[in-house]
Design a protein that fits this description.
301 residues, three-stranded mixed beta sheet, 37% helix, 9 strands, alpha/beta
């Protein structure tokens, strides 16, 4: 099974951690460029990186056989155990599997399994074009397309989330750890960090490695800090809660706090502006740049 990823010289230490931690379960397909041109203090390096990633996913889909399953990964990933079996099991009946952003809601796009199908290709074409149109956060485009029902209704895409042991640090907001960790995605840092500086993420990875090896105190304390961090609660409410902009998420049950959406649009209309949503599960309101952030997917890699 192929695993595609890309990085530049700034992320070489993270790249080395990813490569050295994987256990030969994947055929690595690496794309290295000297400088991605990341935007300092912007989530994940900003729009240039979002568009580059979406294009690389489209290229990966074009390069594999019809029906072939592969993984696309960010470089802030550390393998802690066997993952391939989980990938094969979770994608058996769907086109796309993504990590959990929070235990109960949301996806992040740091570690993705996908099947090369017409639905998957149409989905990523939409993600690329919509990210380019709004000049905004790719992960918001992905979540809106999935939870609004657009991906299912327009593209026939079937999707799922990985089980908790394919762990992202954003899920530490619950204050709990899975019983077992097989993969770690460092998508949240409490301290503010630069897009081009991986040092905080490497420190997290060391802490997680120590936890798996039996030295549990450091990570348990860090999880407590994340659970009480105000920026995490604010991020969740803005992206997956009552202050979420964009289309209705019809895939959520009636009464769910995140289902209505449209917060920014309603606020703009009340102030005498124009509602900015786009129909059918696009990214929603005309996107303003996310503030410099340490919050998940307002990520730094």
């Amino acid at each position: 099974m192929k695993l595609f990823f890309f990085c530049d010289s700034n992320f070489r230490p993270l790249r080395d951690r990813l490569v050295s931690s994987q256990r030969g379960e994947f055929e690595l397909q690496e794309d290295f460029i000297e400088d991605l041109g990341v935007m300092q203090n912007r989530a994940g390096g900003g729009v240039p990186t979002y568009l580059y990633k979406a294009q690389k996913i489209k290229n990966a889909l074009d390069s594999v056989e019809e029906g072939e399953v592969f993984v696309f990964s960010d470089v802030d990933i550390q393998f802690l155990g066997s993952v391939r079996g989980i990938v094969e099991e979770t994608i058996a009946d769907v086109d796309l599997v993504l990590q959990r952003e929070f235990e109960d809601i949301g996806v992040n796009i740091g570690f993705i399994a996908m099947r090369n199908s017409a639905a998957t290709r149409a989905f990523w074409k939409h993600v690329h074009s919509e990210t380019e149109r709004i000049q905004g956060l790719d992960q918001r485009v992905v979540n809106n397309a999935l939870y609004s029902g657009l991906a299912r209704q327009q593209f026939g895409l079937h999707w799922a989330r990985f089980p908790p042991e394919v762990w992202a640090s954003s899920t530490a907001g619950s204050g709990k750890l899975p019983e077992k960790l097989v993969l770690y995605h460092a998508n949240f840092t409490i301290e503010r960090s630069k897009s081009f500086d991986p040092s905080l993420k490497l420190e997290q990875m060391d802490m997680v490695s120590n936890y798996v090896s039996g030295d549990r105190e450091g990570l348990l304390h860090w999880v407590e800090l994340v659970a009480s961090d105000r920026s995490m609660a604010d991020y969740r409410d803005r992206h997956f809660g009552s202050r979420r902009p964009g289309p209705e998420w019809v895939e959520l049950p009636p009464g769910h706090v995140a289902r209505p959406g449209g917060f920014r649009e309603k606020r703009g209309a009340a102030a005498g502006g124009t509602a900015g949503g786009t129909a059918g599960g696009a990214a929603g309101a005309s996107e303003t740049p996310a503030p410099p952030a340490t919050t998940p997917e307002e990520p730094v890699s």
